[in-house]
Amino acid sequence: MYTSRIAGIGHYVPENVVTNKDLEEFMDTTEEWIVERTGVNERRWIDPATDDMPSTMGTTAAQMAMKNAGITADDIDFIVFATLSPDYYFPGPGVMVQEQLGIKEIGALDVRNQCSGFVYSLSVADQFVKTGMYENILVIGAENHSGGLDKTTRGRNVSVIFGDGAGAVVVQRSKEEGKGILSTHLHSEGKHAKELALLGPNTAHWVDKMIAENDPKDESYYPYMNGSFVFKHAIVRFGEVISEALQANGYQSTDIDMFIPHQANLRISQFVQKKMGLSDDQVYNNIMRYGNTTAASIPIAMSEAHQEGKIKEGDLVCLAAFGSGFTWASALIRW
Ligand code: UT7
């Protein structure tokens, strides 16, 4: 009987820092509004003059994760890549990471679960490791939001929140009972699919809409978000899915040593923290520096928390996410 553990973590963010003051130049917004409503002070947006893309950023994060795990690319036997902003419509970035790392013909899977994408991917890797099929799996979350945001006043409720970056972990086979990934919990509710979505480039219209019409006023090319509706669902689903993970393992919220929520909005994280009765040092947030990086947010936060010594051997770590789909998910890990 195998168990699975996170053996290494890494992250990468583009160098280009975009402050709230910078955004005031493109759209009708204020530094105060953004900080008060979202908690974001600055985010990283890819400089188009660089080669940064979800696959290349994911590869860099993966290299750090492998180094941290003390293994090389030759040890990897499967890749799971989560993103809502792939380099290309197809193929997905998983195969590009396989090529960029020079790994020989292993499987590469792309996961499309937006903000929950990393936890879904972790769950996939966990199952493959626990069944004994694979020994070392790279799980990557990476996003290039800045390339597709409406940076005018029309898109301000969405574009001020999101940032670019990548995070990665190595999920590794282990035999230590009671340690590693204890359980994962996945959910969806497709009836709200259009409340947070990018509907423009789609298979029904992609030739006529994207090429023939090419109408710059068409809002469907930009992400749409019914912000307050998403917010209300997020705070409920976060609570539910965390309780589900705790109950499944016989724990209470006070047993958690480190809670790493998907960095959707600082107000959401703070609401959930309060509801769970956690102190500030039991929760890790970095949305202030990076904004919401969707599938990358949890592994970036986990990587930073680990680097800062805030996740230690034996700690009970809880991950939870909610986002477009709607999808939501949690994972409980004994480090
Ligand atoms: O990660 C995936 C899941 N995503 C989330 O969980 C995000 C959930 N939602 C949110 O984080 C929040 O709903 C937002 C941050 C998106 C918006 O905050 P809000 O407090 O819900 O604001 P709102 O959309 O209700 O807008 C309030 C006002 C509106 O003006 P009026 O109609 O009251 O005059 C907006 O037009 O704020 C205005 N507004 C802005 N003003 C300045 C919206 N965006 C901006 C902006 N700057 N960037």
Number of helices: 11
Mean of all residue-level pLDDT scores: 95
Most strands sheet = 5 strands, mixed
Cα end-to-end separation: 19 Å
Number of domains: 2
Give the helix/strand class. Answer: alpha/beta
The CATH superfamily title of the largest domain: Thiolase/Chalcone synthase
- SSE string, helices as H and strands as E: EEHHEHEHEHEHEEEHEHEHHHEE
Low-confidence stretches: none
Strands, count: 13
Q: Enumerate the strands of the largest sheet in spatial order, edge to edge or round the barrel.
A: 1-7-6-4-5
Proper CATH architecture of the largest domain: 3-Layer(aba) Sandwich
- What hetero molecules are bound to the protein chains? oxa(dethia)-CoA
Summarize the structure.
By secondary structure, the chain is of the alpha/beta class. The chain has helices at 20-24, 31-38, 54-69, 93-100, 117-130, 156-159, 206-213, 227-248, 266-276, 287-290, 297-307; strands at 3-12, 17-19, 42-44, 78-82, 107-111, 136-143, 165-174, 180-188, 196-197, 224-225, 258-261, 316-323, 327-334. The strands form 4 sheets. Strands 1-7-6-4-5 form a 5-stranded mixed β-sheet, with helices on both faces. It has a 4-stranded mixed β-sheet with strand order 8-13-12-11, sandwiched between helices. It has a two-stranded antiparallel sheet with strand order 2-3.
